[in-house]
User: Fold this.
Amino acid sequence: MSPILQAVLVITLGVGLSVGYFWLSNLILDNVLFPAKGINAGRNINLANAVRPWLFLFPAFAAMGLYLAYPVFETLRLSLIDRDKADAFVGLANYRQMMDEPKFWEALKNNFLWLLVVPAASTLMGLLIAQLTDRLRWGNIAKALIFMPMAISFVGASVIWKLVYDARPEGTEQIGVLNALYTFFTSNSPEVWLTVPFWNNFLLMIVLIWIQTGFAMVILSAALRGIPEETIEAAVVDGAGPLRIFFRIKMPQITSTIIVVWTTITITVLKVFDIVFAMTNGQWQTQVLANYMFDKLFRANDWGVGSAAAMVIMLLVLPILIWNVVSARRELR
Amino acid sequence: MAELKLTGVSKIYGGGIEVLKDINLDIQQGELVVFVGPSGCGKSTLLRMIAGLETISDGTLEIDGVRVNDMPPSQRGIAMVFQSYALYPHMTVRENMAFALKIAGKSKAEINASIETAARTLQLEPYLDRLPKALSGGQRQRVAIGRSIVREPKVFLFDEPLSNLDASLRVATRIEIAQLKEQMPDSTMVYVTHDQVEAMTLASRIVVLNNKGISQVGTPLELYKTPKNEFVACFIGSPAMNLLAGKITGTGETTTVQLDGGGVATSNVPTLDSDQGAHVNIGVRPEDLYATEPNANGASLYSGEVSFTEALGEVTLLYMDNNGEALTAKFIGIHMGLRGNTVALSAAPDNVHLFQEGLSMLHRAQRS
Amino acid sequence: MSGIAGQRSSLAWVVNLSVVFLVLLWLFPTVGLLISSLRTADQISNSGWWSALSTQESQRSPVRIGGDEQDTDSGVAITGTLFDLDGVDISAWGTSSRRPNEFAPGDTAELKDGQTLSVQADGTYQFTAPESQEGKRLPRVFSTATTPPEFTLDNYNTMLFGGGSSSISKAFLNTFTVTIPATIIPILFAAFAAYALAWMEFPGRAILIAVVVALLVVPLQLALIPLLKFHNAIGIGKGYMGVWLAHTGFGLPLAIYLLRNYMVGLPRDIIENARVDGANEFRIFTRIVLPLSFPALASFAIFQFLWTWNDLLVARVFLIDSTGQTTVMTNHIVELLGTRGGNWEILATAAFVSIAVPLVVFFAMQKYLVRGLLAGSMK
Assistant:
């Protein structure tokens, strides 16, 4: 069967089945199990209303349980067993093996570098642009253009930036902007930038910063708009200059939004895979955890160490997860 | 059209917060009963319990003699008009009105007939195919009312229906509701408001709610003339009734009270001999006070300096002060230049209320 | 603050100029790729894309002359033009790669066996030989010329309709096949769950909301092996079904979160009024809540579309098998990067085709995207 036909079938079936499920289960609930008639009408209606939420929740939570919650525990289990020894429990052996690998430490070190640079740079750039475009007549157009990379895949962005970093042999004309500028201004020979250890990490980070700045900008821009105009006008009347207004009046009022943006980008950074995979594949000391894990799982076929690496990512995400849950619960109250 | 009977109704939220306690109330067919009270007194909660939008923690609610505690809203035969109108924004006026009827399985012809009638009554005919966002506030309010009329409910419930309208529209719509009630003399209506003018003008009976319970039930004039307690006395009427502390010095058919501020008040509320020397509060409405010369024994009701005046045109409000004891008086007409003067005031014995420990002594007399 | 009196306009200039600079900086890389995809392989490798916008002098790639022979008194002649372009200005030319600038325009070169060749500044040439050159290789012309900007859609033509191993038409269709069901199915599941979490009273609701918030940040890396095992166990292995299910599962937390946040904001009165009107929960949901939640549904649909379209990891793990029949755009590009890393005309075109669809969606529905972002992160 052709995939397109299959897709149409799946859409129809999926939509049909889920609508059918909700409709039918409600029908049965209201008319067969607890009919709203007779002497027990009131009691039945209350019973039906107690059951109904679970009907509504079941498909989504079953899917999430299977596709997100269960894998966390299964990965934990996989990281503690050895596939080659008939799934024997090996304790922390996989973790120990992973820690003995220099590539792991390189990935961890790079990940921390990413965590340090990308959220900070994106948030600051986003905040800067949001503030600059705030009162601009063509601000919305400017923002749309800077926001645009959000729609571009990490792979597409990698190709775009690979062209920027491209290097041609000395003597021929450079077609990568970076080398063109570099050779023009320094008269050095061109560099193959992506192979220059340590600094190449930053070249990869620029790709993500380029993408995430738009995200930070959109949200911070809305937060700036949300600041009550009166507080700013009051500051103007009090004689505060633009800088003071920004740092003393606006910034404090959007702190919580800045934190949200920062953590959201942090999570994206922890999961970054495509960019490294497409641009260097972890060579030249650019390895990161997600790519290291992918490497272990699908190239070395070592599920134990791969799962251990995945657990390390989970561990890094955990503080943010807990913080999110706590603040969500606080809001519900 | 129906009767409503509440017996021992209470509301306790999860966490043990009690909002309403032991509410007993009979609402007769054809009445328009208004719930008033300060914000947070539970008047909206009580209405929502009647509607079935809140569960009843204790007690019973009967509509036409049938216990409806566990019935869902749609089966109680009620219709509700919300403060925010709650029109379905994605449906036209016609669809808004038809929604409930369709669910009830009415035929197309029936639905159209009801909508036409309601639209004519409420002058909504030109707007039937518009979306709510294309209507003014007053029109939306009429649609909300129309939507409840077409359902022909036993009881209409109104939850502060006028509070989202501006002042002039509020008066106009209030009159419309009063006229609507006259057109449907048999329908029972329950109306919640915090605005006492609405309560006084619309109600056949007012229920004043305070402190988790009912303070008083009565016709608007009963509440004005013979408030059962200080709370109702102060809540009904604007500006609020003045309360002055004193001691009973003369009992019998008329009562004399020596006021702590130095004045003397005479009230037509009867008292017993045993009341001699009792500490009481007298209540006098600002509009019942008139200026007087202090008589020979210096016995006016109150004498103090006018610290501030507000001229409203048809009346003038005087804010008085007598060594820290404040009082408000309302004089008909314009009275300029009184500020800073000392004025003595009196009131007719008929208009002087007596309260002991917050409760009206008149009602005590009737009780015993 | 435009209305405030006495503000300096120099500041406004600085702001305007810095925003212009930032916008250009942000656009520059993408524009480079777009322009590159519109140039020929030779142009890309001979000069930076930024020089394609202006008239410039460059060494042209060699052109082998050819055409019909005409008999003349002294043998045969071939005339033609080197470039299919207007506005070419040749400054020097030659016939060997060692000396590409041997002759000036208008010169006549004496070649072997009595052949002659002359090239004019505008690129027209005349070749003469004593006898017919049928079946022989004609000389190549090297030239340095100033040419106006020139662009071509050939790359797109080849990549989309050309067939061959680097063609992206199949990957393009496959990507749609992955994306559409993976966008639609989770919306339905999520909408019902979000409604229950927003408007129904039941014990444990707060905990379930917390669970959704927690699952929102669980890295999907953890799901790869367990789910691959699971898919193999239930017999769907690698394929579309697997990737649809995976995207549905991974998209649900965000979908529920966005939709719940939106639905909670719907006026309580409207929903209660529907209850008084006698609507049951199913009808309230389909007739009132769902139509009113359209903006949130649209936001999530855009998110999920962009995410599934741009995804590489999930497709690689759950879809793409060794046959290569089920490759998607992102994966195809990664493979091209490996095998055709230097062929920028191929890479740039493939990348731009893959970017084009999300960009169209982005600009058409930006309003909903922004709204969704805000709902997702500002509480």
